[in-house]
Design goal:
The chain is α+β, with helices and mostly antiparallel strands. Helices cover 36% and strands 29% of the residues.
């Protein structure tokens, strides 16, 4: 399914480029930048560049409004956990209210599309990022765990999951992998 038919006028969706990465990284919300850097331990630009340039994942996408990049997004399959994937996104801070509402509705459509491909979607969220937590919950993700010291900065993160439970047998998920590693 293509989301192109759902885009408002002056919006476009395409594969992301390194110049898109530089533009979005410069304009991130401070709390999003802090979350990325606490998780990965490197500058947000480097994190986004690695997501855009990742050869082994689905191509990173960019949403533009009036030809200006406003959001990078993508999804990465969880290695060793078939059917599990981690969606990601980075938006600029200065989205107008109407554009933010459009982006929120389009992100919901995108998550539904991804859910058809990957039965379980999983995300970690810095506890300081209240807007992102609310957005995840609005998208249908449910809190499923808490990591007291996680990522490069050993900060508290919450775990979120969305999707079908395993039908039979032991369910494998990011949450259980992290719990067994003693991160919780």
């Amino acid at each position: 399914m293509s989301l192109a038919k759902h885009l408002p006028p002056d919006y476009a969706d395409r594969n992301a480029t390194s110049s898109d990465t530089a533009h979005v990284a410069r304009l991130l919300r401070p709390v999003d930048r802090a979350e990325m850097e606490a998780l990965e331990g490197r500058p947000a630009f480097q994190i986004l560049a690695s997501m855009v340039d990742a050869p082994d994942s689905a191509p990173a996408r960019v949403l533009t409004i009036c030809k200006a990049p406003v959001m990078l997004y993508g999804i990465v399959a969880c290695e060793g956990l078939p059917g599990n994937a981690m969606p990601w996104l980075a938006t600029i801070e200065s989205l107008a209210q109407d554009d933010l509402m459009s982006v929120m509705w389009m992100s919901r459509l995108q998550v539904d599309v991804w859910q058809h491909r990957w039965p379980k979607l999983q995300v970690v969220c810095d506890v300081r990022n209240i807007f992102r937590r609310q957005w995840l919950e609005w998208l249908g993700f449910a809190a499923c765990g808490h990591l007291k010291e996680f990522g490069a900065a050993r900060r508290p993160f919450d775990l979120y999951e969305r999707g079908a439970m395993a039908a039979k047998g032991e369910e494998r998920s990011l949450t259980k992998e992290m719990m067994s590693a003693g991160s919780m």
